[in-house]
Design goal:
Quinone Oxidoreductase, Chain A, domain 1, Rossmann fold, 2 domains, 7-stranded mixed sheet, 6-stranded parallel sheet, 16 strands
Length: 329
């Protein structure tokens, strides 16, 4: 009845650190489904949870891991039975509730999604919260009228998890993708995913700032926030849309009203954490039908529980390319 977990704790001086420990089932949190974790993912938010950043974790000791996939071990809910393959993203699991960085976890059945047909537990964690969010952003842009004929779509933070999967999904859907990255050394990998144009982040930010700039992009998916989001809004074409997903470059947004009142630009927020069940199932189905996982394989790295603390510092420093898969056992 014991299992291994990466336990994150805070000492009397407020220093946060993590170590692999052996726990027993009595220590698992409340919930009605116990899951043996096959795979988890590493996301920017996991980096924050493992290092005490962002005030996301309030109660210690804690087990982080905002997304995982595995096999139901025990269920007190009619929707799931032992042996079912499931996945979980969001619902603040890994932040306010113990998450996936363990061989076993216990959660609320309402938070689970059955494994989409055609995908393995490893596949869905290759995609993870990052891929789900990318799909939700594309769905919202298309609901607002975006089509491949509308023109270039800009993806920022393109070499990261959300950015790289958004690049791949959009290219597969026939869009012309401009990938903005601070790491030109990954340009070839982004081209392989389907990006038509690579834009250097420093060159983009280095262009002279004007209240309204040349209209270039039909839409954008922004994973970065801060100065990048402020600048790209001024380059969106008439009637275009911007999906704001992340804040890897900062939470501030400095802009002006001209893109909105002279070009009718729409800025929309994307949240994957509290998405209702039906929207999740629909998005996962579309990912399963669209994403070329074989083409994405070169952007996937694997770590065990012991490797997570270092990988967390890497993702916060913007040094991770694509997705990091976590194998807890
Ligand atoms: P990653 O760390 O994998 O990717 C972030 C990318 O942003 C990096 O790879 C890098 O790309 C770029 N970046 C990093 N630091 C900076 C910086 N200082 N200035 C500008 N660009 C920078 O993270 P994820 O893809 O997992 O997540 C991306 C963002 O989206 C995060 O802020 C995350 O919290 C958020 N998110 C939001 C969700 C939602 O539901 N709204 C769900 C999932 C994630 P490059 O080197 O190519 O420039």
């Amino acid at each position: 009845m014991t299992f291994r977990a990466l336990v994150t704790d805070r000492d009397a001086e407020g220093r946060v650190s993590s170590s692999v420990q052996t726990l027993n089932e009595a220590q698992l949190p409340e919930g009605n489904v116990t899951v043996d974790v096959d795979w988890a993912g590493l996301n920017y938010k996991d980096g924050l949870c493992l290092t005490g950043g962002g005030g996301l974790v309030r109660t210690y000791p804690h087990v982080a891991g905002i997304d995982f996939a595995g096999t139901v071990r025990e269920s007190g809910d009619d929707r799931y039975k032992a042996g079912d393959k499931v996945l979980l993203t969001g619902w603040r699991v890994g932040e306010t509730h113990w998450g996936g960085y363990a061989e076993r976890t216990r959660v609320n059945a309402d938070w689970l999604v059955p494994l989409p047909r055609g995908l393995t537990t490893r596949d869905v964690m290759t995609i993870g919260t990052a891929g789900l969010t990318a799909m939700l952003a594309i769905d919202r842009l298309e609901a607002g009228g975006l089509t491949p004929e509308a023109g270039e779509v800009l993806i920022t933070g393109a070499a990261g998890g959300v950015g790289s999967i958004a690049t791949s999904l959009l290219a597969r859907l026939g869009y012309h993708v401009a990938a903005l990255s601070g790491r030109p050394q990954h340009a070839e990998a982004l081209r392989t995913l389907g990006a038509s144009v690579i834009i250097d982040r420093n060159e983009f930010l280095g262009q002279p700032d004007k209240p309204l700039e040349s209209a270039r992009f039909a839409a954008a998916i922004d994973n970065v926030g801060g100065k990048v989001l402020g600048k790209l809004l001024k380059q969106i074409k008439y009637g275009g849309q911007v999906a704001s997903v992340g804040n890897a470059g900062g939470i501030d947004l400095s802009t002006n009203v001209l893109p909105f009142i002279l070009r009718g630009v729409t800025l929309m927020g994307i949240d994957s954490v509290m998405q209702p069940y039906a929207a999740r199932v629909k998005a996962w189905r579309r990912i399963a039908l669209t994403l070329d996982l074989a083409a994405y394989a070169g952007l996937v790295r694997q770590v065990g529980l012991e490797g997570l603390p270092y990988a967390a510092t890497q993702i916060l420093a913007g040094e991770v390319i694509g997705r990091v898969l976590v194998r807890p056992r």
